[in-house]
Amino acid sequence: MLFPASVAGSLPKPSWLAEPDKLWPQWKLAGPELAQAKLDATLLAIKLQEDACIDIVCDGEMSRQHFVHGFLEFVDGIDFENKVEMGIRADRYKAMVPQVRGALKLKGRVHAAEARHARAHTKHKLKITMPGPMTISDTIADCHYGDKVKMAMAFADLLNHEARALERDGLDVIQFDEPAFNVFMDEVTGWGIEALERAIDGLKCTTAVHICYGYGIKANIDWKNSLGAEWRQYEKIFPALAKSNIDQVSIECIHSHVPLQILSLLEGKDVLAGVIDVASDLIETPEEIAGVISEVMKYVPKERIVACTNCGMAPMRRTVAEGKLRALGKGASLARERFG
Ligand code: ZN
Asked: CA 23 to CA 134: how far, in whole Å?
């Protein structure tokens, strides 16, 4: 099928699970009640996507507080008690981050519960996301490895371990989120892609990398405003990504200043084209979405285009996110009618 619809990853959490409209929400429950509520919310996220005609559905990231720290909680060697302030994404924001204090090791499975629950309740293709090794390394303080690359490779091995297990759980797509790829472009070609390939090593399911300009929060909007009329960050990393083993690349299109001709550098890759703006509460029309797809078609073969959101929708209001999901399904369907 042409233009299958999918989301970048996260959806807003219901208010009975966590504080609404926040990027770092506090859970409303604890212990076994929280564990059950996460699964209930996962089921809801899947149902909403199915009803909105989203073809490749996600768990909605209902089980994690934040896309990076949701993984780190399951890693030994990290001190969460004594967080330190660090400028992340080349100082775009200051965040209180945990510190690596010893050799990194998984405590056990990370996403087994929600992945298996989601798998048991949908016949659609199922995707799960994890933070990429470069982005993790940019969101944690190192007091052990003494070398960012060495630490990133250690994280890549842990991610690979969990990814292989998720594949056995029946996941169709495993995606790594690497917003840091748009910030440290020289390092991406130097070691970032190597770390990513280590994370996907041996996987037979579809693999994806999501590279965005961030959630629609103020620090990101200010940063985007500083990037000038044309955002050419992708241009520096796409040739190397095209040569890599990754199957799919998820990127921002709608309302971004990315010159779409850059997409022609991703030859041989599926492109998850962002046709839903997560930094605006205005719901896109199917017409607008089909329009973006037709622009992307100038540079990417139509068989390789997946209609997607620009980024995760975690910090959005639920009604807005649900409206955008429905628009996405309708827009992809309109594009199918028109360009099929
Ligand atoms: Zn994103």
From this structure: 20
Q: Is 280 exposed, middle or buried (0-12, 13-18, 19+ CB in 10 A)?
A: middle
| 110: DSSP letter | S
Query: Half-sphere exposure of 322 toward its Cβ, with a 13 Å CA cutoff?
Result: 11
Residue 21 has pLDDT above 80, yes or no: no
Average pLDDT of the chain, as a whole number: 95
Say if residue 229's pLDDT is above 90. Answer: no
191 CA to centre of ligand 1 in angstroms: 21
User: What pLDDT, on the 0 to 100 scale, is given for residue 69?
Assistant: 85
Half-sphere exposure of 114 (CA within 13 A, CB side): 28
Domains of the chain, residue spans: 31-339
Distance in angstroms (rounded) separating the CA atoms of residues 250 and 235:
14
Q: What is the pTM of this model?
A: 0.96
If you measure from the C-alpha of residue 224 to the centroid of ligand 1, how many angstroms do you get, rounded to a whole number? 13
Strands 93-106 and 75-88 come out as: antiparallel
Domain spanning 31-339: which CATH class is it, in words? Answer: alpha beta
